[in-house]
Amino acid sequence: MKKIFAFAAVAASLLASCFSSSAADRKEILKVYNWSSYIADGVIEEFEQWYKEQTGENITVKYMTFDVNEAMLSKIEKGHEDYDVVCPSDYIIERMLNNNLLLPLDFAAIPEEINYIYKYRSPYIEKMFRSINPNIDANDYSVAYMWGTTGLIYDPKHVSDAEASTWDAIRNPKFAGKILIKDAPRDVYAPVLIYLRQEQLKAGKVTLQELMSDSSAESIAEVQNYLLECKPGVCGWEADLGKEIMTKDRAWLSLNWSGDAMWAIEEAANVGVELRYIVPEEGSTVWFDGWVIPKYAVNTKAASYFIDFMCRPDIAIRNMEETGYVASCGAQEVLESQIDESFPPIDLSYFFGEEASAVCVNPVQYPDIAVINRCALEHDWGEKTEDLLTMWQNVKGSQANLMTFIVIALVIAAAAAYYFISKKNKKSRRRSSSRR
After folding, report:
1. Are 381 and 92 in contact (CB under 8 A)?
2. Could you tell me the residue range of the domain that residue 204 belongs to?
3. What percent of the chain has pLDDT over 70?
4. According to the model, what pLDDT value does residue 370 have?
């Protein structure tokens, strides 16, 4: 019996030692789960060094990527994955708040002189995050990373500014076979509904923000019918690489995100093709991705420092330049880095303060206040999300036409060519990014 007790004691000691060792190891590991191609080269390594300088502790970042919000959420919600920092989109932040999947942020341990979060938070970002959930201030649980708008990329050789100024351009038979639509149901549903509800909006019977929560069967059916009318002219429902086609004059119009527009415009310019981006006059959506600490996180201290580091102005600028999207940092240093006198002055006072009421920056990245005033934030549909996905499948159908296969083949070929060329090019270039 004594031998049994002795064996049990040894086993318990070894087990405790294993748990202790595991916990100790985890203090030196930070698990980050982010979108693919959504951070500048070298930033992770610089954070590890900076963390050591600030805390005296070693840290190794285990950096993982995802391409779909829901896939990331499922791992946390169902698998209880112990990611320390993740970067979901606004509507997923809302869902995680509703489902009690986030830890409140506590940056009290970070010295004031390096607390970049509070020092450089844009008032506009703070306001918009407060509207994510009417009952819980999302600012207490998340910090914005990148943001942008949804609009139309177009080729002015074939599509005039006036023609691109309305969402109905995607139904215009003049552009049949040359239209790309993002394979992102909520980012297509919202602008189409805004277009269909123009009379009610102008009459003040409904607001943009109210439309963002409209998941009624009637509205879903109307959007579906409209998209089915558009479908004959659509040459592809693209997930990420469709903008490649825009640079090759094989598509003239693309419903897309502002970050992808930046990438496409720059790449097209390199081969002598002009592309433009516009937020149609009827209105659109503004979206945000933000850093959060999930409920099952282990290394919350390093997570807090990581989020803070990503808000440091020079890091925010590098991430902007790499991805083409716009950092949520409201520091003057960020604004100054974007000044370009080749653009006419626009009003960014809503983002950087009154001193930015007439600044020359790229309006694709930073929309003028007049554009922002006709944009609204999307919301989570909760249990009605399945209805949205069903509508999307009804629109896309199961059969792809010949043009779709041609587009896919061209995209793959273009992507392969771009990859090998970019490997040889030592210049810093923006990456193609997929974010929702």
Report:
1. no
2. 150-286+361-424
3. 85
4. 97
